[in-house]
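worker-03 picked up job from queue 'complexes'. Input manifest follows; two sequence lines, order preserved.
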Amino acid sequence: MEFELILKVLRALADEQVRYRIVGGVALNFWGLARATVDLDIFVAPDEANIARLRAALDAVFNDPEIDQITAGDLSGAYPAIQYVPPDGPFHIDILARLGERFTFEDIESEELEVEGVPVHVATPRMLYRMKKDTVRLQDRADADRLRKHYQLEDEEG
Amino acid sequence: MPVKKLRSLDEAEESCWRDPHDPLLWRQIAAVWELSRRLAPRRFPPGVHKHRSIEEANRQSERWLIPADEEG
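worker-03 finished. Artifact:
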């Protein structure tokens, strides 16, 4: 992914005051482990007003009519995971409203970090660990282990 | 660049972490992402793709990463 482009997206999310939390590989990068990734995963509050702000933010960066297909109805209903690929297709943004029955936006504990002057909302290492440790994906479990070791989460999570 | 000596793989992995408030972290991330973009450029099908679960979205992401000539 292109760091400057992701920064542009994050700046637009801040400008539009979107309620979101970064999870996944980008969150791991922002907590200190630089590594390649091809997507930006964000949890969003799936209410109409917030999703309208999300569309406005993405449109400010990509100016793409496809963005109108991202709706609060889908995210809070049958499609809690929506992937948006911008016109040039170099990466994708995974927009999540809930993770099965386990996590919704309200459950995602986060902190505000400042990335090159842009305020970003990132799920905490403990939250990322909780989200990743029991998944079937090997990469997620390996990430959970890295977080546990670096942030000494073992005692808290057992 | 200085030589760094490490006692184990765990120690090597731990040495990759930076403080999240270290401004050098952003430069390091930008460099890693740029290198990956050059070595393995990706192109995904543009548009909006809707999924009934995160698992379904993850499966789609994995299919996108398989080169066309390796797909069965």
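worker-03 released lock.
The two ends of chain A are 35 Å apart (CA to CA).
Residues 48-62 of chain A form the longest helix (15 residues).
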